[in-house]
Design a protein that fits this description.
The complex is a heterodimer of chains A (241) and B (700). Chain A has 241 residues and is of the alpha/beta class. Chain A contains 8 helices and 12 strands. Chain A folds into 2 domains: 5-121, Rossmann fold (3-Layer(aba) Sandwich), CATH 3.40.50; 131-239, Arc Repressor Mutant, subunit A (Orthogonal Bundle). The model of chain B is unreliable at 5-50, 148-156, 180-193 and 648-655 (pLDDT under 50). In chain B, strands 1-6-5-2-3-4 form a 6-stranded parallel sheet, with helices on both faces. In chain B, strands 7, 8, 9, 10, 11 and 12 form a 6-stranded antiparallel sheet that branches. A 5-stranded mixed sheet of chain B has the order 14-16-17-19-18, with helices on one face. The chains are: A alpha/beta (241), B alpha/beta (700).
């Protein structure tokens, strides 16, 4: 794969400089945009691999940009924002963002999130070539046709809800899924029982994680939701955040 | 006390006359109040009452009662007063025919349509019940039909006279009613056909037994008066053992006939030779009648007092249970349970909140096997909503929306409807007046309890808001002070680098970089704390309470602790993987971050920090223990105070802001939890907090 191209949308000069300098040090290519309109133009014309987006732009609300981009593109969007309320994060994620980073953020954290998103791009393109009835992520294998799950080639027994949860996370691997999204997908419209979701997630994690307190596959975003990380087996070390 | 007697023959004209008269009367009063503003003493009774009139109409089974109700409604309208309708259910009313029940419910419906609030009370003594009700409900005008007076039995004081004596403050309006009396008389005779074979056999047996004893007495040559006594005893026993006054009346007459036929010369004929016998027969007949009617009344009163006792008991039990109820749902649940027990019907509650009704809470009757789906459909809900909006009863067996399957009763609070109770009527007989009034009394209890609960809730919220306000004021005072120090360091160091970059060596530069980094990190953590505080103080957002797993929260917190933590050994121990509590995850994370950062700050590198979470009864207890130097006892009590730092070297030691633990305590207080510190064994300190555990309901 060529050097990935990142679109940085940020109106604050100092932060933009901070992000681009960081990207340079890691050898990524980048474009920048300072307004909502130019960011959409850049996203169409340059076809970036990942978009890093600030929500507070002078001309448009960042969430609207996410919705616009999502109408034609599945490019991962990492939101970088000073808005730290859970509801802001959830709104952006539900609009289609992949990840959310609150200012002040550390440069290392940004790079880690960027790697996760890039891995999703790579995974998505690989998936097109491969048999889509099987999902493989590191040592985890889901055979959709047989409805069975394997960890290091050993079959794991999941309850129906755990299985549904795992499939939902796997299909959206790399994306942070909000509680509401998951509840809606698994239980339908009629529930808002987050505690049940917590419990199922905890039991599911016990079954697939080697060390549940240092999860490798399912990441908790407290107050927001969950995400399945892509584990490539070989370079596991850089999954750790 | 004023009694208005109106023209009995022209009902329509009389209606308008009544109102015209009232208007005049009102105008007079107002006039007087205006012209004599200082001399209020003579008007004291009238003036405050005006505008606050409460008109009561007495309902009866007579079809002509409608006229009375309309008149009363007119009066209420003229006075802009409140309007109630009262039905006094007497034991006699229990024997009413279907026809009269219908007439009664028509009258009730009419009253309801005219805006009356309908109440049913029980008792034999109608004037007393009316007077009692009038006193309790602050009624000051009462409208009655004449017919009510005629239902009274012999030997009672005149109805209006008694009412006057019992409630001298009432204005009484009598609407004469010429046609109603035959109906009322019919009531008694209409009950006759309901004869039971059992009672007939008992009556005949008693009569035969009396005759046998009498024959025996006669053969022994006893006096006739003894024989009369035997028959009177027979009638008395008859009144006790049979269920109806008809038998004892018949028995009295038959006794006299048999006595005459068998024992009086000429025997075996209904003639009597001696001159005094007609008197004897009359006395015997009257004694028998009186005996039977007295016994009958004793029985009725016993029945009534049993019912009264039952009613009191049920209401007392309800009220006791409601007092124990902890929240709104429990209050509704207890009320519903009592109602189901009393009525043996399925009861459904809709709790009203912010002008909308909640989802229905269904309480099935015990024997019921079918589910309640049919009773909570959209049609039914619409009726409940109507009741909620209009504050009136509706649904099955009432005049409004009577297609509904349930009877909907409003649980009325002071100014609003607090909840709506639905009693399933589907294909079952309507509620008896006694049951209905008891149900309504229960709902009144329920309304009181709900109102008290809501008041408590508001008070609690106000106190929380006050606490938050206090906190915000305190915090703002410190911020400006505490921001200056690190900002000075950052800007100063950056200034040095810009101006003197050339003359600084690598080592010096590195020190300056790391100072800038540390200070900005410190500022970040301060900002996090401040954000938490604004969250607490901001009354509108308040806490975003969600059930969270402690495992997740602690893991999240550990990702945010000071980077120096690599020099400390941090362990986590969970006794149960599924420990959960309702919390604002951001704030609770902040609590753990603050405590762990403190532990890192005040212990030597390489120290152990252990985080444990365990279930402790109703609570979850989280403890963060270190094996550092510990905290002296005299400092412990002050630790959670604002701006307190260990060693208290403020100004020089900017590392201790004295905000962290204070914030922890505020956050836990806002969550309804508590925080504490104790010594670790063998050394070190333990910071712990408790939160009420959330129960986990998991259904696959």
């Amino acid at each position: 794969m060529n050097k990935p191209l990142i679109l940085v949308v940020e109106d604050d000069k100092v932060i933009r400089k901070l992000i681009t300098t960081t990207l340079e040090t890691q050898g990524y290519l980048y474009h920048t945009a300072e307004t909502g309109k130019s960011s959409i133009f850049e996203a169409v014309s340059k076809q970036p691999d990942v978009i890093i987006l600030d929500l507070g732009l002078p001309d448009m609300d960042g969430v609207d940009i996410i919705r616009k981009v999502r109408t034609w593109s599945n490019t991962p969007i990492i939101v970088v924002s000073a808005r730290s309320e859970d509801k802001d994060k959830i709104e952006a994620l539900d609009a289609g963002a992949d990840d959310y980073l609150t200012k002040p953020f550390s440069v290392d954290e940004l790079l880690a999130r960027l790697r996760v998103s890039l891995r999703r791009v790579r995974y998505d393109s690989e998936k097109l070539l491969k048999d889509s009835t099987v999902f493989i992520n590191g040592d985890l294998k889901i055979d959709y046709a047989a409805g069975s799950v394997f960890m290091e080639d050993k079959e794991i027994h999941l309850t129906p809800i755990e299985y549904k949860l795992l499939c939902l996370l796997a299909k959206n691997a790399g994306k942070v899924l909000t509680h509401n999204f998951i509840l809606h997908e698994i239980w339908g419209d009629y529930t808002n029982d987050v505690s049940a979701l917590r419990v199922f997630m905890a039991t599911l994690r016990k079954k697939i994680e080697k060390n549940p307190s240092q999860p490798e596959y399912i990441q908790t975003h407290i107050g927001i939701g969950y995400r399945m990380l892509q584990v490539s087996g070989k370079n596991k070390t850089d999954e750790q955040e | 006390m004023t009694i208005h007697q109106t023209d009995p023959d022209h009902s329509l004209r009389q209606l308008s006359e009544t109102s015209a008269k009232e208007r005049r009367f009102t105008a007079d009063r107002v006039g007087r109040a205006v012209t004599q503003p200082n001399n209020t003493a003579p008007d004291q009774e009238a003036a405050p009452a005006y505008g606050n009139e409460h008109i009561l109409v007495c309902l009866s089974t007579a079809p002509s009662n409608a006229k009375v109700i309309r008149t009363a409604a007119r009066i209420a309208d003229v006075f802009h007063g409140s309007f109630s309708a009262l039905f006094v259910e007497t034991p006699e009313a229990w024997r009413l025919d279907k026809e009269y029940r219908e007439a009664l419910s028509n009258n009730m419906r009419l009253a309801e349509q005219l805006g009356a609030q309908i109440t049913t009370v029980f008792g034999e003594d109608i004037p007393e019940q009316i007077a009692e009700y009038a006193k309790i409900s602050h009624v000051n005008k009462i409208v009655i039909g004449r017919s009510i007076g005629r239902t009274r039995q012999l030997g009672r004081a005149d109805f209006v006279g008694r009412l006057t004596a019992l409630a001298p403050d009432l204005d009484i309006y009598i609407i004469p009613d010429t046609q109603s009396s035959p109906y009322i008389r019919n009531v008694k005779f209409s009950a006759i056909p309901r004869l039971s074979w059992r009672d007939i056999v008992i009556s005949a047996g008693l009569l035969a037994l009396c005759t046998l004893i009498a024959l025996w007495f006669s053969s022994l040559g006893f006096n006739e008066s003894n024989i009369i006594m035997v028959y009177i005893l027979g009638v008395l026993l008859n009144a006790i053992f049979t269920s109806n006054w008809v038998y004892s009346t018949a028995a009295s007459i038959l006794s006299v006939i048999i006595f005459d036929f068998v024992f009086i010369d000429p025997r075996l004929s209904l003639n009597a030779y001696a001159a005094g016998y007609p008197i004897t027969f009359a006395v015997m007949l009257f004694s028998a009648f009186i005996t039977s009617s007295l016994t009958e009344r004793v029985k009725k009163q016993a029945h009534e007092s049993t019912q009264k006792a039952y009613r009191t008991e049920v209401l007392l039990e309800t009220s006791r249970k409601l007092q124990q109820a902890k929240d709104e749902n429990e209050i509704l649940r207890e009320t519903a349970r009592q109602m189901v027990k009393l009525l043996d019907r399925t009861v459904i509650f809709y709790s009203g909140q912010q002008n909308t009704l909640s989802q229905p809470l269904v309480f099935l009757k015990e024997s019921s096997t079918q589910d309640a789906e049919a009773y909570i459909g959209t049609d039914e809900r619409k009726v409940a909503e109507w009741v909620y909006k209009n504050k009136k009863h509706a649904g099955a067996t009432t005049g409004t929306l009577s297609d509904a399957k349930c009877l909907y009763l409003a649980v009325r609070g002071d100014s609003t409807v607090l909840a709506v109770a639905a009693i399933v009527m589907d294909r079952e007989a309507p509620l008896g007046a006694f049951e209905k009034s008891l149900a309504i009394a229960m709902l009144e209890e329920c309304a009181l309890a709900l109102e008290k609960e809501r008041l408590d809730e508001t008070r609690k919220q106000i106190s929380i808001r006050m606490q938050q306000e206090q906190l915000r004021a305190n915090v703002l005072r410190t911020i400006s002070h505490d921001l200056r120090t690190p900002l000075t360091s950052i800007s100063g160091n950056a200034g040095i680098l810009m101006r003197n970059a050339g003359i600084l060596n690598q080592e010096q530069k590195k020190n300056i970089y790391s100072d800038i980094y540390d200070d900005s990190m410190w500022l970040i953590s301060l900002v996090e704390n401040l954000l938490s505080i604004t969250k607490i103080d901001n009354g509108e957002i308040r806490l975003n309470l969600q059930p969270e797993l402690f495992e997740d929260v602690i893991a999240e917190a550990l990702r945010h602790v000071n980077r120096n933590s690599t020099e400390h050994i941090i362990q986590t121990v969970f006794e149960d993987d599924l420990l959960m509590a309702k919390m604002d995850s951001q704030l609770m994370t902040q609590v753990i971050v603050n405590i762990v950062n403190n532990a890192i700050k005040y212990t030597q590198p390489g120290s152990h920090i252990t985080i444990t979470a365990k279930r402790d009864g109703k609570y979850v207890r989280v403890e963060i223990a270190d094996n550092g130097p510990g905290i002296p006892d005299e400092e412990k009590s002050k630790l959670f105070d604002m701006f307190y730092t260990v060693g208290n070297t403020r100004g020089d030691d900017r590392r201790g802001l004295g905000l962290g633990l204070y914030l922890c305590r505020s956050i836990l207080t806002a969550h309804g939890g508590s925080i504490y510190v104790r010594d670790n064994v063998p050394r070190g300190a333990v910071f712990g907090f408790t939160l009420e555990a959330a129960e986990v309901n998991v259904y696959e």
